[in-house]
Amino acid sequence: MALVNPDFAQEIAKHGNETALECFNCGTCAAICPLIYEHFPRRMIRYIQIGAKDRILENAQELWRCLHCGLCTQTCPRGADPGEVILGLKRYVVADWRRS
Amino acid sequence: MYNPKDIIDLIADNVRKTKNPFGIPKPVINQWWKKANVPQKGDALLFTGLMYQFVPYIETSTSYLTRFEDTKWADYLKYGKYIPKLLSGLGLAVITPLKEKKKFNGILMDITNILNKSKVDFYYDPNLDDYSGVLLYDLGDQDGFVQHARYVAAKLKRNGIKKLITVDPHTTYALKTLFPKYTGESFEVHTYFELLNLTSKNGHKKIALHDPCFYGRYLELSDVPVNVLSSVDIECAPIRNSGLFTNCCGGPAESISPKLSKEVGERRIAELEKSDDPIVAMCPICLGNLRKAGADVEDLSTVLARQAE
Question: Can you tell me the ipTM of this complex?
Answer without folding.
Answer: 0.94
